[in-house]
Design goal:
By secondary structure, this protein is of the alpha+beta class. The chain has helices at residues 8-20, 31-35, 39-51, 84-99; strands at 23-27, 55-60, 65-70. α1 packs across α3 (39-51) and α3 crosses α4.
């Protein structure tokens, strides 16, 4: 359960990859190879970036392809602590750890 919350370094790594490659199409089974992060974390990271209007992503279920389109120019800073998605994921993790 500790592995569901992405680290700051993972956010940075994915951000750099997305800003460099404005349009990305990868098969779902290659997510970990491309980003070096487990797929669940990638979807958390992408959802947080979408929450900040940095990108859009979709999944082509027929071809099993993740499509990412980076929508903004480089933003110098944004506060991950303001992300409702990340706040909820952290809370979910904390509740799980308290229950065991």
């Amino acid at each position: 359960m500790d592995n569901i919350v992405p680290t700051r370094d993972e956010f940075i790594s994915v951000y750099k990859y997305c800003i460099t490659n404005k349009h990305i199409e990868i098969t779902l089974n290659k997510i970990k190879a491309v980003f070096g992060v487990m797929p669940l974390k990638i979807f958390v990271i992408l959802s947080v970036f979408r929450e900040f209007n940095l990108l859009e992503y979709t999944i082509n279920e027929i071809d099993n392809i993740l499509i990412i389109d980076f929508t903004k120019q480089s933003i110098s800073k944004f506060n991950l602590d303001e992300s409702l998605i990340l706040i909820n994921i952290k809370e979910l993790k904390d509740r799980y750890l308290e229950s065991y």
